[in-house]
Every structure is written in structure tokens, then in C-alpha cells.
């Protein structure tokens, strides 16, 4: 199949090659009508920029680095799909590393990406990361970095997050309004921004409905089933065990569901259960899992757009960094719906 070039597009549309080139890069110098004409024609012919030619011309690698805690976490695999769709259409390759929730591996990942001369980095922090100096140093030297999902307030850059506070508030409120009074919250790593935001939403809902906070009902847990069994055993050894559990992720909810079933705890009759993320399997479980939907694909797309705009200097200088907050939605299913 013959490769389409910028010259071919320019000739067909009776435009100069420089106009077509700038239109494809989304330059402010080209009017919206011309840009639309060029982009639609390029899409029709399945034009793809030549990354080698571009990198030689612009002294860029035309690649971006992505670091996520775990690729086999469906949330992150969806986010990566979003990142790749944007990067591909703008002529960039994506190099993916996973930290496996380890701070040390995250630092090594960053070093590898820098050695590969990526043009920028998208990162969701590991569960162990408290210190982000390895990223701050590079950002201060001019490497564009954008955070998504798990972010840090210590670096001034773009961030794309879900409205974790609101999602957690609505999940907890639903449990309260369905008559639950002893609502446990199982959280992920205490270092993570998402953990703090979701705990704050949970606490705010308890406060609004005058339910006293019981610190014994707030537990931190990794994704291991053994640790979840320990956490659930502790919760149910209380004089007044929980009648509902809100977990900070669907992966925690899956471990919780398995453990409760093994203990012959009925869901939702004895304990209501709500997760956070809306994994595809949530609706297929028995009982189907109530959860807070978090827009992973959109998060990936939005963070990639922001990073590529930084790389290509489209953001007006000096850059005004923004935090994009995407809406969450409560998806109610059998695990929290009591039959009255």
C-alpha cells in the first residue's frame, strides 16, 4: 500500500506543504476551516506522520513514556488505550512501564524513559511513592510530565483525576439511605491522593447524616487475598461488626466479596458492598457489584492531549497548569440493593 505524504495532501487540496504540516500539528497560525479540511482529508486517506522524519527534523524522539502501577489492572489498561489512541493520531509512539506499586521500580522506570529520550512522561504514582523528587528534578529541567489518577501536589503541572470525593460521598450516602449505620471503608495505600480523596468523601457523608466516625471501621489493605482475609476478620471481630463495606477500588471489592462468601456472610442481606472503578466484571459477579464508575478511557485521552500540547508548545507561555476533574457515577447493582 502506497504511503501518503504531506506533499500528496498539499497537492490534492491545493495548499502549500508548510500549511498542511502546520494544520496537522494543530498550529494556532492556521484557521479552523483549513485545519478541518486537512485533518478530514488526512483521516480519509489514513495518513500517518513519519515519526523518524519528524524526530530528525524537530530533534525529538516522537515518543512518550507512560508509567502505571499495573497493566493487568483493567482501569490502567483502559487508560492506556485512551493514551495510545491520542498519541497514535498525533504521530507519537508510547513506551509503557509498570511500577508494580514499588517506589524503587518507579524511579528505575523514570531513569529508563529518560535514557530513551522520550519527549514527555505520563505517570500514575505507585502505592509506595511519598517522595517525588525523581520527577521534580526532571520537570524542573524542562521534561514535560503530566499526572493522571494518582497525582502529587508537590509538582506544578497538569493533572487529570476523577472526582473521587464526590464518588465516595455518593456511595456512602446510598448505604446510609438504605438503612446502614456501621459502614466500613477499606482503603488502598495511605500515601495515594485517591485514598485521601475517597476517605474524605466517605467521612463527609457520615458527617452530613450525623453518623459518628469509628476509626476501627477504616482499614488499609493491599490487593492480596490473605491480607483482605485478615482485614475482614478484624472488622467482624468487633462487638458491632459492619453492616456495609465501601472499598476504595473494585479490586479490593473482589477480594472482599470472596472473603465474605467464604465466611458465609450474605450480601447484601448481612452486609452491603460497594466498590470503585466499575470493572467490566462488576455486572457479572454474583451478586452483581454496586460500584462508582471512573472514566478510565477519557482520563487517558485527556492526559495524553495535555502532555502532547506541552511537548509541542501549544500551551500559551507561561503555562497555566490545570487539574482536570472527570465526573464519577454511582452504578447500583445487587450487592447494595436491599429488598424491603
Automatic annotation (TrEMBL):
Keywords: DNA-binding, Transcription, Transcription regulation. Residues 4-58 form the HTH lacI-type domain. It holds the Pfam family LacI. One of its GO terms (molecular function) is DNA-binding transcription factor activity. It comes from the Bacteria. This is Transcriptional regulator, LacI family.
Amino acid at each position: 500500500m502506497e504511503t501518503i505524504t504531506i506533499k500528496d495532501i498539499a497537492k490534492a487540496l491545493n495548499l502549500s506543504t508548510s500549511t498542511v504540516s502546520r494544520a496537522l500539528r494543530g498550529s494556532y497560525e492556521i484557521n479552523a476551516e483549513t485545519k478541518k479540511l486537512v485533518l478530514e482529508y488526512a483521516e480519509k486517506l489514513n495518513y500517518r506522520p513519519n515519526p523518524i522524519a519528524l524526530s530528525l527534523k524537530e530533534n525529538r524522539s516522537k515518543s512518550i513514556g507512560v508509567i502505571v502501577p499495573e497493566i493487568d489492572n483493567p482501569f490502567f489498561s483502559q487508560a492506556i488505550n485512551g493514551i495510545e489512541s491520542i498519541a497514535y493520531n498525533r504521530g507519537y509512539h508510547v513506551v509503557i512501564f509498570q511500577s508494580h506499586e514499588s517506589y524503587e521500580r518507579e524511579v528505575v522506570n523514570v531513569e529508563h524513559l529518560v535514557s530513551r529520550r522520550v519527549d514527555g512522561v505520563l505517570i500514575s504514582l505507585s502505592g509506595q511513592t511519598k517522595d517525588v523528587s525523581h520527577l521534580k528534578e526532571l520537570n524542573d529541567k524542562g521534561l514535560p510530565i503530566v499526572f493522571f489518577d494518582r497525582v502529587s501536589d508537590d509538582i506544578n503541572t497538569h493533572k487529570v483525576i476523577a472526582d473521587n470525593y464526590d464518588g465516595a460521598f455518593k456511595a456512602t450516602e446510598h448505604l446510609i439511605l438504605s438503612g446502614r449505620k456501621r459502614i466500613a471503608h477499606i482503603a488502598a495505600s495511605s500515601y495515594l491522593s485517591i485514598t485521601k480523596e475517597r476517605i474524605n468523601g466517605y467521612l463527609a457523608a457520615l458527617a452530613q447524616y450525623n453518623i459518628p466516625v469509628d476509626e476501627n471501621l477504616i482499614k488499609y489493605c493491599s490487593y492480596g487475598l490473605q491480607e483482605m482475609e485478615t482485614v475482614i476478620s478484624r472488622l467482624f471481630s468487633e462487638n458491632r461488626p459492619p453492616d456495609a463495606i465501601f472499598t476504595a477500588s473494585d479490586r479490593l471489592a473482589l477480594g472482599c466479596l470472596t472473603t465474605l462468601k467464604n465466611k458465609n456472610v450474605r450480601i447484601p442481606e448481612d452486609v452491603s458492598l460497594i466498590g470503585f472503578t466499575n470493572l467490566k466484571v462488576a455486572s457479572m459477579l454474583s451478586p452483581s457489584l454496586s460500584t462508582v464508575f471512573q472514566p478510565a478511557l477519557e482520563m487517558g485521552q485527556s492526559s495524553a492531549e495535555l502532555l502532547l500540547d506541552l511537548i509541542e508548545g501549544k500551551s500559551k507561555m507561561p503555562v497555566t497548569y490545570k487539574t482536570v476533574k472527570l465526573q464519577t457515577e454511582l452504578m447500583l447493582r445487587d450487592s447494595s440493593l436491599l429488598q424491603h
